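[READ THE FOLD]
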Amino acid sequence: MFAFLVRSSLRSRAFVLVVALIMLAYGAITAARLPVDVLPDLNQGIVTVMTEGSGLSAEEVEQLITIPIETALNGVAGVHRIRSESTNSLSIVYADFNLDADIYRARQFVAERLSAVAPVLPPGTQPIMMPLSSLMGEILLVSLSGGPQADPMVLRDLATWVVSVRLRAIPGVSLVNPIGGYVREYRVTLDPLAMSRLSISIADVEQALSRFGTNASGGFIERNGQQLQIRTIVQPLSLGPDNTGGLQQLGDVVVALRDGLPIQLRQVANVAFAPMPRVGDAGYMGHSAVIMSVIKQPGADTLKLTQEIEAALTDLHRTLPPGLNDLHVLFRQADFIEVSINNVEHALMEAVIVVAIILLLFLGNIRTTIISLTAIPLSMLITFVVFAWMGLTINTMTLGGLAIAIGELVDDAVVDVENILRRLR
């Protein structure tokens, strides 16, 4: 068989050269388009369901939230294991599907079961199916800081409402998790003396607060053959960082009527912004900061996505308020990939140089040297074509294998060409 290939190639030299040039061009284009990641796609079909139960202990979360969700997910087509974690105020359930399962159909099955179990969960709890993300998907850690004078609450607002929104708009980004800072919330501090003087009870305040932020329909009126809708708008119109408009509207909420006059919330309570109780913190260079974890979607090119995110961070640095625009990349997964690619490139260049020197010194034939030097890059580019056909990616493991294969490739190129030249002589 080998002799037949050699004779056929020698008889059709022009055809072999044309095919080699086509494979070189096709391999180079394929290598440029292959997805690049730190590791192969090891994602099993895992669907994560997260549920918050505010104020519940770990035992109550296990009994009231985790077990009902596990029971609902048992029997879903393709599920082979269900795992869970229950801590204070938080339940996490993992549904592991078979390797050949369609993850999108699996998420649809889980969503159907969650809609059925939602009514039996404690009031105020809503199970949330987490976005589809890669197992090694944390590609960046970005810090937002402003020095010692920065307000942690303002930093968290900017990270949540500005930076995270901008990064999630980039195709390939699955999730952006802000860590640190203070989460802004409305805080109502009751004044017992004012409540007693105006005969306002705590139940009156709770009922008034429950209506805040919900719009309602007032029906419609007919005028000139048209129906005009009547709306009662009480939802805060100003959203995002420093929502002072919503604070003003909250203070204007009517708690009760006394002698036909409305009693507003600010008359019986102090309305202000305050941070939520937190269980963790983040910092940068000894100062308060917000760390954002950027997680990519499965199949996204890590190098390309990292470049797009860094370009977006550069734009954000110019648009954020002065003194609160200190953005730094703390962790960059693309660095590992770039180092691996550089190692393979160096190994390939060194192999070409060593082969050229050895062949010229020991064989003294330029033609055989050119043949050997052509075989090495051609073999590498054809390997990338095979990767594309098999659905593989360029990652640290495949690059490590290529680095080892270069040694075998150099050995074959030298030994085979030397043997052919010896027989011709």
About this structure: Residues 65 and 121 are 6 Å apart (CA to CA). The first strand starts at residue 46 and ends at 52. The chain is about 50% helix and 25% strand.
